[in-house]
Structures are given as C-alpha cells and as structure tokens.
Amino acid sequence: MEKSPLLKPNRSRSTGCCHGFGKRHILALISCGGFAVVYALRVNLSVALVAMVNNTEYKKTVHFRNITNTSDGECPNLEPQNSTFSWAEQGEFSWDPKVQGVILGSFFYGYVTTQLIGGCLADKFGGKWLYGVGILTTSVLTIFTPLAARTSPYLLIGIRVLEGIAEGVTYPAMYSMWSKWAPKLEMSFLIALSNAGGPIGTILSFPISGLLCEYGFGGGWPSVFYIFGSIGCLWFVLWSLLAYNSPAVHPTISAEEKHYIQSSLGNTKHRQNMRVPWKQIIFSRPVIALNITTLCGAWGFYTVLTCIPTYMKEILKLDMTQNGLISALPYAVNFVVSVFSGYLADFLRKKQIFSTTSTRKLLSALGLLIQAIGIVGVTLVGCDRPMVILLLTLSVGFGGIVSGGYSINQLDLAPDLTGIIMGISNTFGTIPGIVGPFVAGVITNTGQSRQEWDMVFFISASVSTVGLLVYTLFGSGEEQPWSCSNPTDFLSEGSYQEIDSDAPSMPSYVGSYQPTNFDNPFEGRGEISNLSYYRANINI
What's the whole-model pTM score? Predict the structure, then answer.
C-alpha cells in the first residue's frame, strides 16, 4: 500500500497549468481513431463471415432440425414457418464451424508474434511509425481479403495472419508513446480515451458491416473490406501529419504544456540506452498476475467479439441488419464506461481516496465480475431475446470498467519499460483470440444448439473469474524496483545519479538505505518515492 503521495517531490511543478485541452489530448483523439480502425478491421470478418458461408448446405450434412421446433430447447424462428431461407443462408463458401473458427482465430496467429518485438522497438526508437505503419499495412491487406477468400480458405487464413503480424505492434507502440506523453495523474483518463477507439470501431463495424453485406457493392460482403480498408489508409495520412513520438519533438506544443508533461514524468531521454532486466520482469509477481489477468479478461472479451454475430444468427435467429445493430449495442455502452472508468481511476488517485494498487484492483474486480455474471446470465434466460441482449450489454459494456484497472497497469509497474511490459502482457491477451474461436467452433460443430453455446459461455465466465482472483491477490500498482534499470553511463551498483538538474537534492541517508519490501522498496520514504527523478541500479 502506498504511504506517500504519488508525486510529492514535484507536486508544485505539476499543477496549476495546462489542465485544458492540449496536444496530449489531440494525440488521445487521433490514437482513438487509430484503435477504431484497428477493431473495425479486426471484427468486420465476424459479421461478413455470416454472409459468406453457405449454412444451408452445412446444416443438411448434420441433419439440421426444423428451426421452428422448440421442443428440443431451440429458439423459434422469427420468420413464418413456410418462409424460405434468406440470402444469408446461401453464401458462397461451404465452410463448417471448425474452419470458420480457424479463420476467425487466424488473425491472432500473427498478432501474438509481434507484441514483444513491437514493445522493444517502440521503447528504443519511438512508437509513432510502428503504430501508423502497422495500421496502414493491415488496411491494405484488408482490401485484398475478398480476392483471397475467393481463391482459397488457406489464402484467406494467410492474409489474416499477415494482418495480425502488422497489427500486433499497435498496442505496445501506443503504450510506449503514452509513457512519454501522459502526466501521472492524467494517465488513466488519456489512455482510456485512446483505447476507447476499440469499442467505437466495433460499434461502427458491426451495423455498417451488416448493412453492407445486404446492400453493398461487389456482391455485398466484399464491400465491407474495401470500405474499411480504405478508411484505414486515410487515417494513416492524418496520423502522419499530427502525431509525434514525444513532447520534446513536437514542433507546435506550447512551452507550458511541454514543461507540465516533462516535469510530471521526469527525464525520459535515458530510456534508449537502458538495459532491460529480463529476469526480473519474467519472475515479477505483479507482472505474472497482470499477464494471467490479461489472458482471462481477454477470453471473455474475444469470445463475445468474434462469436456473437454467429450466435445472434444461428441461435436467436436475427437477420443481418438486426444482428449488426444489436451486436454493436454492448460496445456502445463499453465506450462510455471505459472513458468514465479512466476518469474515475485518476480521480480516486488524485484525491488520494485509494492508492494506485487499490484503485487498479477495485476496478479490475468489478469489471471481471460483471463480465462473468453477464455471460452466465445468458445461459439462464434461454430464448428471451431482450434479456440475452441486456445481459450481453451488461457483460461487455460494464466489463469496460477494467479500463481504469489492469488494462493500464503496465505504466504503473515500469514506466520506462512500458512497451516491453505491454508486449508481454498483450501476448498473453492474444492467446484467447486464437484458442477461444477454435474452442467455440469445436463445441458447436455438431449443429449450433443452444446447449452447445451455453458451454462456450460457461467456459468464458469461469476463465474471467480466475483472472479476478489472481489480480486481487497478487496484482500491484507500485512501480517495481527493476524498472530503474539504468543506462550504461549510470554509476556503479547501489549508487544513485541525479537525472533532473532541477530536482531537489538527494537525502543523505539514501546511500545506506536498504529496501525490505521489494514490491515497493521506497515505501515509507516519501523523499525518494518519485522514481522519475532518481534512478538506482538495483539488481534483485
């Protein structure tokens, strides 16, 4: 638990100016747009795939039952009994649920490979071009998706893998940029606003993709990929013109805002020469807890993100337009809740109502608990469509509370190594994107029954609960001692060097101080609690 104010040594230098709209907020908005593109490109296939696949042919091979028969627990069709199958049942491709699961998960096969690489490169060279080019590459590949799908499912899988490789650097790169742009007590809100692009992209992608599948050009579903890919290319132009790696290199930032940000964060120039303490990172209890929690939280999120359009159509019997609009509703709530959660986290810390650790644990626990309860609730209400939609909205929407919790914990644990820590944790968070759709495909492979989908949801809720317990017991919001890994020109082990010439003088007792709490070695030493000023070569 923190016993000293978060920014005690330089409190007077971090307040009183630049609390209005500035370049850091412009960065948050542009990066929010980037993440909107990221998620639109990621999830549009989830909707388009429903229109691409010939479900009638597959259902005949598994002795598809009359969809108006509810005696076996299936939901009734909303259409009259003598109606014919819609065009959505007559897609071009005869891919069974297993193949569809592999296609939906293939993006993450590539996505998992570049997380750590992206973090290392961003911390060393800056994140602007990694983030921008990653999204641009994904956008261009998306435009070629219809050609790949009509050539071979294996080529489609290959395109999706390449998209994942390109997009895998985006989150580590952006988090690394925030370690140079986000003042300590604005960090939660700015990052939550930036990350809110994810639900915005999902909100737009689901209904627009549904409409394009039905009314678009090029056969309907191909227009989904042409339009969203083109939007991503246009966004890249805007990013190239307006984004900069740090306040130090921004040509038009005001001197006041630059001083405000830099005085809050301390000197960041030494990061390019830092030695990465890999052993301490890998075996750090808070990092392990963060990795496990990220995996568990992402399982529920990706299960809903990739599989709900199929569930809406196959189980609830909603048409493409209804499917897209209703699938987007939980993410509209998620957007609002995520931004508010970031603001709330900063408020609780700024007013010293809770420590950073308590704030992160509280918001993480609430988000994961609501996510699990909502998903379990879906299994209990049967074919009550309004209740299913309400519970999915509760699960995904209010699950966004974690935006002020573990989702930004990387910057708490190691501000100087944010890109690397984010790369590691997001690698774990990518695993459910690979495994989740595949598991759902295997479970529902015998005919898309409600009982099979209940099993999918129970697994998801159980995994979320594990994440809640792990982070509550082992998570931390304290900067870790190994985050002080020094540049090569630092003094010998155990000694300290002053980074900022304007910082207050070091207390005389520092050289002899031996930490006893390695989760927070500076606990109780308010005079040296601001690690932005003083970096120690501590090897544990």
Answer: 0.70
